[in-house]
Specification:
Length: about 230
């Protein structure tokens, strides 16, 4: 069972009536909510809209999470190349699918999908960073050469989304301590961390090693995945 119909109506009404007291660029509100059957189980899709720039963000909710404690939550930043195209340069798609599968087996949980492509630098700059990586720079060096920090993401929008869903505390699916710290800075109560470690493949191994060694992600990066699982090479 998902969020009950009367609660859905309340969330939509609160979204219509919402007036943000904080920075408007980081203020989102619920605009639509519908059932979403998936290969990972029954979910509900919650559409959020940024009150300033009209940028869309999404929450995929399994079970009734409203007013609940210790809700399993994956905060996932958009990765077009990984999530949609199946790029082997990162582990984004694998983390997303693993999170959906795990949460689909739980009583309740949420996958927040934030429009923060390329660790917050946008799609064009992400591909520019790939160009630099093709020349031998790691992901941190590439971002810095483009004038960015290694990670430009901010999770205040995620905190607003959880607040709008009246989630009291979460268990976060992540390997990134900085994400935990930023969410807590924005008022999210985190009761635990659930690792989402994906085996490395021969292409993304340096990427994962950089996340571990230079960005503090909690990763082993030992096991190597079989690329044949991704289909034949062309």
């Amino acid at each position: 069972m998902g969020i009950p119909a009367p609660t859905v109506e309340r969330l939509l009404r609160e979204g219509d009536e919402h007036r943000c007291d904080g920075p408007p660029e980081n203020c989102v509100r619920v605009r639509a909510l519908a059932k979403l059957p998936t290969r990972f189980g029954e979910y509900q899709a919650v559409a959020f809209e940024n009150c300033l720039d009209r940028q869309d963000h999404a929450a995929f909710v399994h079970g009734d999470v409203v007013d609940q404690e210790n809700v399993a939550v994956r905060v996932h930043s958009e990765c077009l190349t990984g999530d949609a195209i199946g790029s082997l340069r990162c582990d984004c798609r694998d983390q997303l699918l693993e999170s959906l599968a795990r949460i689909g087996q739980m009583e309740r949980g949420i996958v927040l999908y934030l429009r923060q492509e390329g660790r917050g630098i946008g799609f064009v700059n992400k591909i520019r960073a790939y160009q630099l990586q093709d020349s031998g720079y790691d992901t941190v060096q590439a971002n810095e050469l483009l004038g960015f920090r290694p990670d430009e993401r901010d999770y205040e929008i995620a905190a607003h989304m959880l607040s709008a869903l009246h989630v009291r505390s979460i268990q976060i699916l992540t390997n990134n301590p900085a994400k935990v710290q930023d969410l807590e800075r924005h008022g999210v109560r985190i009761s635990g961390r659930i690792p989402v470690e994906i085996p490395a493949n021969e292409i993304n191994r340096p990427y994962l090693q950089t996340k571990r060694d230079r960005m503090g992600h909690l990763l082993e990066v030992e096991q190597e995945d079989d690329l044949s699982a991704y289909g034949p090479s062309k």
